[in-house]
Inverse folding.
């Protein structure tokens, strides 16, 4: 048989396969035995073009809250997927929900049709057009597997701004999860627990301490997407990020419950599927949950139990319509400049009161880490909001902190003052092409307007800023080379946001209420 005949024969076979009725095509098969996969395969069934799914009810007896599986044999098919609406927190939370699918587990799309039938107690979803691959992955929402956390940590480990915390080894590992056997009888191996610090090591002055925690609940994947995006911003060449690295130390614990995530659990840990790990931040026993104990003790050691901001990233299906923060209003945390700035960048964010009675991560941040601001941030699974939305959200978290902790414009040596030392830097680099420098390095040489050069426009900007703070006469003396008085004006907002205990540092406007 010649090549042209062979090609013609294969094309004919493909066309025949496409034209076959669904009943004669290859049977669709389901699988959820992979990282963060979740499905009751024994309770699921394929009946012609209908794929009847059964959710796992670990932690929530009789209810499911996460599903993620692959379906093989779907090329050129348009199967209908159906699952009961026995959803934890109530089937009504599925009313506006949309399931997602992917051909590579990286790029995700929302199903065209998603509907709940409250009378029949079902949730049905399908596409208008056929699948273009023989295998498709389907999930309740955007997955974030343990492997992604491991890969992301490895990818940033070589950054000059990343280093192990005091509790971590050179691979940024603070310990290992216990592993165990999940509710399906599968062996879940021990996983590395990571902790790392982000900062500019060249900046040795006073810095705020910020703790970022993620992955406490197994099914709350969007919190990890948001945290990852924030970390990427903190390590970027963005001017705000670069200045922020000089003003703060970030302590990041990206995946506190990797066993539960790996097993595809609804919420809990593998060693105790019926216990909520976000009610176990209670040292010294931590409700007998080893991974929570390891992360909790690491946070205490790494920060000397003295931090300014504690942010725990979660996800939820409740308290819509948008993303929100659980914040203790009685303590005035909702007035913290970081949160108010974030709400300016993200106007749809809502605030819900947190009483900090249960042993949550946020309570741990307040009472064990002595945080000046603590919150649980909840991202919601919203139809149409894909990964780019959470990249923007995480980036805005970083920008809000950058704006909160930034030094004044014109402070070229980042000491909190716009003074003669900054004038000397500006003058020394006058009329210099800085286009080859990073935004931070160019700014530090006097490129205040970020146009790639230290030029007359930067002189005008500096002059206006200096005069606004110190007066026209002071600027004239500065240009004439007359030394400044020792009482050069400190722009106090830089330190307004720092809570300092046991550190002999000026607190111009006092502490936030606790």
């Amino acid at each position: 048989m010649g090549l042209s005949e062979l090609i013609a024969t294969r094309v004919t076979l493909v066309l025949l396969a496409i034209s076959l009725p669904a009943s004669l095509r290859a049977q669709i098969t389901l699988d959820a035995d992979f990282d963060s996969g979740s499905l009751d395969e024994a309770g699921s069934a394929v009946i012609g073009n209908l794929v009847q799914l059964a959710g796992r009810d670990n932690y929530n007896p009789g209810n499911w809250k996460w599903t993620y599986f692959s379906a093989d044999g779907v090329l050129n098919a348009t199967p209908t997927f159906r699952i009961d609406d026995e959803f934890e927190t109530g089937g009504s939370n599925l009313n506006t929900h949309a399931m997602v699918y992917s051909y590579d587990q990286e790029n995700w799309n929302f199903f065209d049709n998603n509907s709940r039938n409250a009378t029949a107690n079902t949730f049905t979803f399908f596409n208008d057009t056929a699948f273009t691959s023989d295998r498709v992955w389907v999930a309740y929402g955007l997955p974030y597997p343990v492997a992604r956390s491991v890969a992301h940590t490895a990818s940033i480990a070589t950054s000059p701004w990343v280093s192990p915390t005091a509790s971590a080894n050179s691979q940024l590992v603070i310990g290992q999860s216990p592993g165990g056997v999940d509710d399906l009888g599968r062996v879940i191996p021990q996983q590395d627990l990571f902790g790392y610090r982000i900062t500019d090591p060249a900046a040795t002055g006073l810095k705020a301490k910020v703790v970022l925690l993620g992955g406490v609940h197994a099914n709350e994947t969007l919190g990890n997407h948001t945290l990852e995006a924030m970390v990427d911003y903190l390590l970027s060449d963005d001017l705000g990020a670069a200045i922020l690295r000089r003003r703060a130390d970030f302590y990041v614990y990206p995946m506190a419950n990797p066993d539960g995530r790996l097993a595809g659990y609804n919420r809990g840990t593998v060693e105790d599927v019926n216990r909520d790990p976000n009610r176990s931040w209670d040292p010294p026993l931590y409700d007998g949950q080893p991974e929570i104990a390891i992360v909790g003790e690491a946070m205490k050691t790494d920060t000397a139990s003295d931090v300014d901001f504690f942010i725990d990233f979660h996800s939820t299906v409740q308290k819509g319509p948008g993303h929100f923060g659980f914040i203790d209003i009685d303590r005035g945390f909702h007035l913290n400049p970081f949160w108010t700035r974030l709400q300016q960048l993200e106007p749809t964010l809502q605030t819900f009161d947190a009483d900090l009675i249960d042993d949550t991560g946020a309570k741990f941040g307040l009472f064990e880490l002595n945080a000046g601001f603590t919150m649980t941030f909840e991202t919601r699974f919203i139809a149409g909001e894909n990964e780019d939305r959470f990249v923007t959200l995480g980036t805005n978290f970083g920008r809000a902190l950058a704006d909160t902790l930034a030094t004044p414009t014109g402070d070229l040596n980042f000491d909190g003052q716009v003074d003669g030392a900054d004038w000397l830097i500006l003058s020394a680099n006058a009329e210099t092409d800085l286009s080859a420098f990073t935004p931070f390095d160019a700014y530090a040489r006097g490129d205040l307007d970020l146009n790639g050069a230290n030029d007359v426009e930067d002189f005008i900007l500096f002059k206006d800023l200096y005069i606004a703070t110190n007066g026209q006469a002071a600027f004239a003396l500065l240009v004439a080379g007359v030394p400044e008085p020792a009482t050069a004006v400190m722009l106090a907002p830089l330190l307004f946001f720092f809570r300092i205990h046991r550190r002999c540092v000026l607190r111009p406007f006092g502490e936030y209420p606790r």
Observations:
- Residues 1 and 334 are 76 Å apart (CA to CA).
- Residues 420-490 form one domain.
- The longest helix spans residues 387-405.
